[in-house]
């Protein structure tokens, strides 16, 4: 441990050992989100559409998140630190690895896995992103594209969260246009040399295992590699000053002649299309993040408006506030039903990439709208992270952008329904004479 680590650990320890805040003094008239509000947002009774196993997963995750994460999330979000001590608790939920069967993974239905994502996100979006990157991107890539040996070697410890994974596609100069990535993989005796940079990679500052995509210099195609922490030439530096998902540790990765043995090349990644197979599934999970976030926002507003009084009456008694609440509630029901239908299409093998993209883009759009109304409803407390809504409002911004921005996902659906791809502007051949 370096001196800096030691100092940071001491600072954190004393910070989090402070006597518990007397909430009634700090926040007169309304309860903050550290005591999480009951779920009032499931108005159309989603449980009726779930199997008993899916309902049980939902309740188990909800209880853990409300009891273990809600009391600490504001402090960690504010400090932009990751709460490492909760990793074993999240691992014990047996939701990591989601739909993967065997190799110590839970083998949940996609609906069960999606509900777990939503329940985590309802309380804390950063925690759900941590799990999503690890489980629905890194683990799923190994499950879909790894060799039998790689699956046996890596998936069991990842499923228990004894090891943490990340997934590195984006580069400083290649975000939406990820298929143009420039990190190179050159074949040498016994392995490969990786050179290049990656940006925004969640969990990368502490991940034990990094799934990295690079362009094969012989074939010009995209290949995938499993890179272990502390491999010589690999560095990951935390990106500071984010306004959303502040608990997630996003990093800039530098690959300086990193040697990867042949056994750590993912045999199932032969082209960029192979990453699209993973993204189509993970987008279903990402779509359930804003659903969970919006449920939490609604639940918080519902309790707050009944607790706080103005003009001698609870805020919930004013017609304009009721209309706003109902607007939010309608959004949440529509989001849930689209998310649920997406899962069913996936389960029946009928889901198309365009359908997954429409789900992700439309649900994030509605979640942003829901968060903006919720922020208004809480007045001044709507800008305090302590009351969840301000924090969730900020957390939705990166979710609107990652796994394909709203625009890119719209264009994926647009291509599917029209037959025209419009990602690249038509070459402007003539210069304007004006
Ligand atoms: C918090 C966070 C976490 C992330 N985690 C990861 C991770 O773990 N792993 C990973 O690989 N990546 C990750 N990303 C990267 C993320 O996927 C990219 O940010 C995203 O793909 C957008 O790329 P960009 O930021 O470079 O934006 P740009 O591509 O520069 O886009 C800027 C704007 O232009 C628009 N635009 C771009 N191209 C078009 C077009 N053809 N038509 C219309 N509009 C267009 C976009 O919609 C956007 O509004 C993360 C990002 C964030 C913010």
UniProtKB/TrEMBL annotation:
Family (UniProt): Belongs to the acyl-CoA dehydrogenase family.
Record domain Acyl-CoA dehydrogenase/oxidase C-terminal: where: 276-416
Q: Which UniProt keywords apply?
A: FAD, Flavoprotein, Oxidoreductase
Please cite one Gene Ontology biological process associated with this protein: fatty acid beta-oxidation
Q: Which organism is it from?
A: Juglans regia
Q: What is this protein called?
A: Acyl-coenzyme A oxidase 4, peroxisomal
- Please list the residue ranges annotated as the Acyl-CoA oxidase/dehydrogenase middle domain: 166-258
Q: Which Pfam families did the record assign?
A: Acyl-CoA_dh_1 (PF00441), Acyl-CoA_dh_M (PF02770), Acyl-CoA_dh_N (PF02771)
């Amino acid at each position: 441990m370096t001196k800096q680590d030691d100092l940071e650990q001491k600072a954190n320890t004393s910070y989090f050992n402070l006597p518990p805040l007397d909430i009634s003094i700090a926040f007169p008239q309304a309860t903050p989100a550290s005591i999480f509000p009951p779920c009032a947002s499931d108005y159309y009774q989603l449980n009726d559409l779930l199997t008993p196993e899916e309902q049980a997963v939902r309740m188990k995750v909800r209880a853990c998140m409300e009891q273990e994460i809600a009391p600490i999330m504001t402090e960690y979000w504010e400090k932009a630190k990751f709460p490492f001590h909760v990793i074993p608790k999240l691992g014990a939920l047996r939701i990591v690895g989601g739909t993967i069967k065997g190799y110590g993974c839970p083998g949940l239905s996609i609906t069960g896995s999606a509900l777990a994502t939503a329940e985590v996100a309802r309380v804390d979006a950063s925690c759900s992103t941590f799990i999503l990157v690890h489980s629905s991107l890194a683990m799923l890539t190994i499950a879909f594209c790894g060799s039998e040996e790689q699956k046996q070697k890596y998936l069991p410890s990842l499923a228990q969260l004894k090891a943490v994974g990340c997934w590195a596609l984006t580069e400083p100069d290649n975000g939406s246009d990820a298929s143009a990535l420039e990190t190179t993989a050159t074949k040498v005796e016994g392995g490969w040399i990786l050179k290049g940079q990656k940006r925004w990679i969640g969990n990368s500052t502490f991940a034990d295992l990094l799934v990295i995509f690079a362009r094969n210099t012989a074939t010009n195609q995209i290949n995938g590699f499993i890179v272990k922490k502390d491999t010589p030439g690999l560095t990951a530096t935390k990106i500071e000053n984010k306004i959303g998902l502040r608990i997630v540790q996003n990093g800039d990765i530098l690959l300086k002649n990193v040697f990867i043995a042949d056994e750590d090349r993912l045999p199932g990644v032969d082209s960029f299309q192979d990453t699209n197979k993973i993204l189509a599934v993970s987008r279903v999970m990402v779509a359930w993040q804003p659903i969970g976030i919006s449920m939490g926002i609604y639940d918080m507003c519902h309790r707050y408006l009944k607790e706080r009084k103005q003009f001698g009456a609870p805020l919930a008694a004013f017609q304009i506030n009721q209309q706003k609440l109902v607007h939010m509630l309608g959004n949440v029901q529509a989001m849930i039903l689209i998310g649920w239908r997406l899962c069913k299409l996936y389960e029946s093998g009928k889901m198309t990439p365009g359908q997954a993209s429409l789900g992700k883009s439309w649900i994030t759009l509605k979640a942003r709208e829901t968060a903006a109304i919720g922020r208004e409803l809480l007045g001044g407390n709507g800008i305090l992270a302590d009351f969840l809504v301000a924090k969730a409002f900020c957390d939705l911004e990166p979710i609107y952008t990652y796994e394909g921005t709203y625009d890119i996902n719209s264009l994926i659906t647009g291509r599917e329904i029209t037959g025209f791809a419009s990602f690249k502007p038509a070459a402007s051949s003539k210069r304007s004479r004006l």
